[in-house]
Fold this protein.
Amino acid sequence: MSLNIAIAAQPGWHPPSRLRDVYGLLVPRAERHHVAAVGIESRKSAFHTRTGELLDVMLAGDVAGALLKLPDDEVVRSVLRELERHFPDLRDAVRFTRCFRWPEAEPCSPPGRSRAIAAYRRSLPANSRMLLAGDYTGMPFTEGAAEAGIWAASRLAAAP
């Protein structure tokens, strides 16, 4: 399950200078309660954040499940408390927030999956002309499917 929160800040608000060149912030398990990661969207595309900063806040899976049914304002309040450590003046700059709930959105990937994928790729004969590609042959999310497709295309292009 997944619970993401978009936080739009007032024009003129910016993340702290120590995060000036940072697009994404991953919070280590030992240091988090709710927030697993934060995307600073202006670093991805300034075009989409012309009137203020947009933060994409991703909650930890187990926490997302616990907060999934709470009202938006309660979820946002608890997340803002934790975000203050990384973005000290964010609370006063919030323009609006949106909560996105996906009860079945984040698949789990078992330990060892990366090794299994590498072993599968090594096991294929060099002259294979047909390869399977998708999130089931990579990591279980969109980027994994794209990476698997790029890997398969590159391998076929380089085949003897």
In short: Strands lie at 2-9, 24-26, 35-40, 54-59, 94-102. The two ends are 43 Å apart (CA to CA). The first helix runs from residue 41 to 44.
